[in-house]
Amino acid sequence: MTQHTRAKSDVFTPTGQIQFGVFFQGVNSGTIWKAAESGSQTDFESFRRIAQTAERGLFAAFFLGEGLRLREHLGRPHALDVVGRPDAQTMLAALASVTKNIGLVATQNTTYNDPADLAHRLASLDLVSGGRAAWNIVTTDNAWTGANFRRGGYLDHADRYKHAEAFVETAKRIWDSWETPEGPARRVLHEGQHYTVDVTPRLPRSAQYRPVLFQAGDSPEGRNFAARQADIIFSAHPKFDAAVEFRKDLVARSVAAGRGANAVQIMPASEFILAPTAAEAAEKKEWVRSLQIGPQQAIAYLEQFWGRELSAYDPDGPLPGIDPVVDETSETRGSGFHGAKARQLADQWRAEAKDKGLSIRQFVTSRTARVDATFTGSYADVADRLAEYARVGAVDGFNISPWLVPTGLDDIVNHLVPELQERGVYPTGYRGSTLRGNLGLATPVRTADDAAQAVRA
Ligand SMILES: Cc1cc2nc3c(=O)[nH]c(=O)nc-3n(C[C@H](O)[C@H](O)[C@H](O)COP(=O)(O)O)c2cc1C
């Protein structure tokens, strides 16, 4: 289990290996639900098939994102969101019973949860999965989610991370303060600016000691927070040069945080469009993009910025000549720009589209292309590119969004994984039965007495 665990050092040493996770995005415009066999975003079968395919490909982790409130579009719920998103922990608990080795990662935010409650729910997921649970820590980047909650408010960016840090520290103390089922559980006290708890844990440490901690949030504060608290970062920097830069930045932050250069792993968000040859992959990419941005998606995309109905416009014609409604645009909740910038943006986009001779649909397709995050090519070429990431230690793995449900991972599992294994950069089996073991993460060391020390913050 510990064969890949590295000793603490201020010098970064690549493992020469990469791992995969799957980021199952239920509601978004980048995943295609249009295949006859796609099922729905709320159907357990959709989740089960992707998780089991990922496990067949020896993926380390299955991720679920979180959105605690439906986004809105022109004052109405966003069409993609109304199809639904089940609660991550409930879904992962169900998946635990139909998988054996893959890690189960729940995105959960610190702004609206409570530490004692969330720590217990994650400890329960860790228990039912035999030590495969993880928490992807987010703080949420929008105010409209706050309207769902009793406390109603939203925290400033800086406050959100202070709150998050106290939250995560408390959760760790709750997990760590009951060593064995036979030993006594300690009381954990925290008295602070954001909350006060006096809690006795209801579960002892898990098979992997405590849930693995992922973090997603890219600001300097977010990165520092991850350097202090996280095991793995779900990053937004998959492109090679950006990934190398991000690694350097992270290493410096985690050395400064006193955790050494190798404490935090990195898995960027990514997408793979693969085929036997480069030409076929390029053709497939066109097809994938045409499905991702259909006529309705193209119009809806512009409506977010224009703040008004544009359904009368031809998706295959030029960008709308009318101007955005500035006030309404700022009411769009979920995406888009703030009103003040909308008119300027519209002028800029109209000029650009005219210049390049692009229709609405072509323009939106070009704007939403995830150029940085998409690996397109033949199985062998992409495997060579990924082997280079592994060699220099740019990343520890990739968190892959399948573009088609349920078959979007098949190419990766059937063709890319074997190519990577041949190059010696991808696991040939699960190393152990826990997520911590499979990721080669060190087991935390702390006595229950130390964990339970009262904290006044
Ligand atoms: C790759 C990635 C994935 C994320 N996934 C989610 C998510 O599923 N739900 C969510 O509420 N926030 C998500 N976030 C955003 C976080 O809420 C983050 O805490 C927020 O952007 C504020 O932090 P920052 O300013 O440090 O980026 C994600 C961020 C990144 C970079």
Entry keywords:
about 450 residues; alpha/beta; TIM Barrel; three-stranded mixed β-sheet; 14 strands; globular; binds flavin mononucleotide
Overall pLDDT level: 90
| Strand order in space, largest sheet | 1-2-5-6-9-10-11-13
Largest sheet: 8 strands, parallel, barrel
Rg (C-alpha, Å):
23 Å
Based on the coordinates given, report the CATH architecture of the largest domain: Alpha-Beta Barrel
Question: How many beta-strand runs?
Answer: 14
Helix content: 25-40%
Number of domains: 2
Number of helices: 15
Secondary-structure element order, N to C: EHEEEHEHEHEEEHEHEHHHHHEHEHHHE
- Give the ligands present: flavin mononucleotide
Output the structural class: alpha/beta
CATH topology of the largest domain: TIM Barrel
CATH superfamily of the largest domain: Luciferase-like domain
Multimerization state = single chain
Per CATH, the class of the largest domain reads Alpha Beta
Uncertain runs are 328-335
Termini separation comes to 36 Å
> What would the principal axes of the Cα set say about the shape?
globular
The percent range for strand residues is: 5-15%
